[in-house]
């Protein structure tokens, strides 16, 4: 018996990192999973990993910046599995990084389209199918950056703070429908998002990030998957409107280095000197 037996989940950004780990965890807990991502090849690999383990999953190519794609994603879940119980709004990018004076307005907007508007739409399109299912669990990936801003990550942190606020207001509106709305605030998790821009790649990230917080090991995608599986399950039936911090203690303020120092953004333009996050002091 899994925690999520018989449930159907949609997960964005499920081709990599926390989204992939959560897709695999949900499937191991008994859910059928609709894997959504821009990256079709890696998304199909997530599906292959799940189906090799005997569970059910399908891939839907999705740009979360597109309203049409997101609508099509939820339609696919209903067409494929006939119901929707869990939505994990997780896809993300570093977005517009650097000093305020260097951030282009259009890069600011793109950051909010992917990190915040997509979460609004993911919640919006979950409501009707979840009402029909008698309730559901919507989870979004925010960040400790949404609680405590980091140097050089103005747009990212503001967009994640908006996700935390939207989580609370949506929880107020949807409680009567038994639709729970929560978010997770990860600390530093070793995924391509943080090591793509590092010369030493994944290993360098793991070493550096092990020193960032009171628990002296780097965060793993599976740490987030475990929290998502709990929030998605009926064990969390009285939990809504919360921001679950999963960060090895980073948010205590005891961090020895800034999270921004190794962040791989910007995703919208080639990294150059004027668009780099300032080094942490
Ligand atoms: N890694 C960290 O330390 C950290 C910390 C806090 C929050 N987060 C957040 O966690 C979430 C997952 O990130 P991750 O660290 O697993 O990174 P990742 O790069 O491993 O995975 C992100 C996935 O999102 C997909 N994606 C990006 N833009 C998309 C779009 N427009 N449409 C559809 N898919 C898109 C990518 O293709 C990728 O598969 C993000 O929202 C990120 O902001 C990450």
Provide a descriptive summary of the structure in words.
By secondary structure, this protein is α/β, with parallel strands linked by helices. It has a single domain, classed as NAD(P)-binding Rossmann-like Domain (Rossmann fold), CATH 3.40.50. Helices cover 41% and strands 14% of the residues. The protein contains 8 helices and 7 strands; from the N terminus they run βαβαβαβαβαβαααβ. The chain has helices spanning 17-28, 40-52, 67-81, 105-132, 154-174, 192-195, 201-209, 221-232, and strands at residues 8-12, 32-37, 57-61, 86-89, 136-141, 179-186, 243-246. It has a 7-stranded parallel β-sheet, with helices on both faces. α4 links the parallel β4 (86-89) and β5 (136-141). α4 (105-132) packs parallel to α5 (154-174). The longest helix has 28 residues, at 105-132. It starts with 7 loop residues before the first strand and ends in a 35-residue tail after the last strand. Residues 272-281 have low confidence and may be disordered. Residues 12-13, 15-19, 37-39, 62-65, 90-93, 114, 141, 143, 186, 188-189, 191-194 line the site of nicotinamide-adenine-dinucleotide.
Q: Can you tell me the CATH class?
A: Alpha Beta
Major beta-sheet overview: 7 strands, parallel
Strand order of the largest sheet: 3-2-1-4-5-6-7
CATH architecture title: 3-Layer(aba) Sandwich
Mean pLDDT: 93
Level of helix content? 40-55%
- How many whole angstroms does the radius of gyration measure? 18 Å
Strand tally: 7
CATH superfamily: NAD(P)-binding Rossmann-like Domain
List cofactors, ions and other ligands. nicotinamide-adenine-dinucleotide
Beta-strand proportion: 5-15%
Provide the domain count. 1
- What is the general shape? globular
Instruction: Tell me the distance between the termini.
Output: 49 Å
The quaternary state of the protein chains shown equals single chain
By DSSP (H or I, 4+ residues per run), the number of helices equals 8
H/E element order: EHEHEHEHEHEHHHE
